[in-house]
Write a structure and sequence with these properties.
The chain has 219 residues and is mainly alpha-helical. Helices cover 71% and strands 0% of the residues. The protein has eleven helices and no strands. It folds into three domains: 1-48, Arc Repressor Mutant, subunit A (Orthogonal Bundle); 50-184, Tetracycline Repressor, domain 2 (Orthogonal Bundle); 192-219, no CATH class. This is TetR family transcriptional regulator.
């Protein structure tokens, strides 16, 4: 019934327009009662984004699962779950993109959905960066960067009508984020710094030996 309501709604949105379509129109087209609509969707806007709640739940479960992944790599993996939701049904995804672009209210609704994904990533990263003084800031910035990179590539694919390899484009964008932030890992801001003072004429091998001795790596 849920799928029938979505299909009926999009038929009407595309033929009559979003604003002109009422919930009564949707349930009549789907052949169900009005009460059935509200069993699945709080509003007409929610019919346009029927799969985001499920995807968000999957993302949170993915981030909560035990993993040895580097933090930025993990949130990039979470972003790929969102991409898969779009690429599993390209026709629907392109239709939704075009509809959302033309209806300001839907764009606002979409922004609230994207914000929920970003918050889930940021909350995960705060836990991973808890030992850093700038952990909260770092978490928010990286989460925003992952979402921005993902959406940049995703929207390019949607604008093309679903042509091309969305996964390759999104992976390229996410690797850009990992290249910028991934090397930071979970290191503590209190890591030791070794300073070696030596003459300019000292051979490089002796400088290396001094560093190895100071850091306990001299075997």
């Amino acid at each position: 019934m849920r799928e029938a309501l979505v299909a009926a709604a999009f038929d009407l949105f595309l033929s009559s327009g979003f604003e002109a379509t009422t919930i009564d129109d949707i349930v009549t087209r789907a052949g169900v009662g009005r009460r059935s609509f509200f069993r699945y969707f709080p509003s007409k806007e929610d019919v346009v984004f029927p799969d985001h709640d499920r995807c968000l739940a999957e993302m949170i479960a993915f981030l909560d699962a035990e993993s040895d992944d580097e933090p930025v790599a993990r949130v990039c993996g979470a972003a790929r779950l969102v991409l898969r939701m779009y690429t599993d049904n390209p026709t629907f995804s392109v239709q939704r993109y075009r509809l959302t672009k033309s209806v300001p209210g839907l764009r606002n609704h979409e922004l609230s959905v994207v914000w929920r994904y970003e918050r889930a990533m940021a909350n995960y990263l705060r836990g991973r960066f808890a030992n850093r003084g700038d952990g909260s800031l770092r978490a928010d910035v990286i989460a925003a960067a992952v979402v921005a990179a993902h959406n940049n590539a995703l929207r390019s694919w949607l604008r093309s009508g679903g042509e091309g390899d969305a996964s390759a484009d999104v992976n390229h964008a996410l690797e850009f984020v990992r290249g910028t932030w991934g090397a930071e890992g979970e290191g503590s801001e209190d890591e030791d710094t070794v300073v070696v003072i030596t003459k300019r004429s000292t051979p490089l091998w002796r400088v290396v030996r001094e560093i190895q001795t100071a850091t306990g790596q001299d075997h």
